[in-house]
């Protein structure tokens, strides 16, 4: 009888702990994200303290996640840098003093992502703004060349926590531009988005 009472009490206690355990499980799965470090993305600059008044992205630069399918679907125009996530709207603000990473048009460059967990991946894609784009407005599809200048297909493989891609930068670019990077996830309906401000020489 005593053993039955102990078992019953333990069962009730375990059931009572389930509501507490569930958020922990969800938080663990939500930490599987990433962002570009080279060139430094806007979220990276916020996390490093290079740009102030960034809001919550400074604590979780890896969390710029939104619906995939860009450019035919995905985040709405004007919210691309934040992945359509209103919590990170500061990333879409063109008036912030975003540092510019110098680049040489037409030369090879190695892009680097930092991942907090590795999703099964369809591809990494890199887009650039058109010549004559307006850097004083939030990024829209009409300001981007919608054919990526670099695509790395993964076929559902999981990348390492630090993943690099080498490729040739677009030619015929000069001055300030944005590089818009998209990490397409294979086994969810989402992608991760990253904007990096650069200066082509």
Automatic annotation (TrEMBL):
The keyword Signal applies. It holds the Pfam family LPMO_10. Keywords: Signal. SUPFAM superfamilies: E set domains (SSF81296). Residues 64-102 are annotated as: Disordered. Residues 1-32 form the signal peptide. The keyword Signal applies. This is Chitin-binding protein. It comes from Prauserella shujinwangii. The lineage of its organism: Bacteria, Bacillati, Actinomycetota, Actinomycetes, Pseudonocardiales.
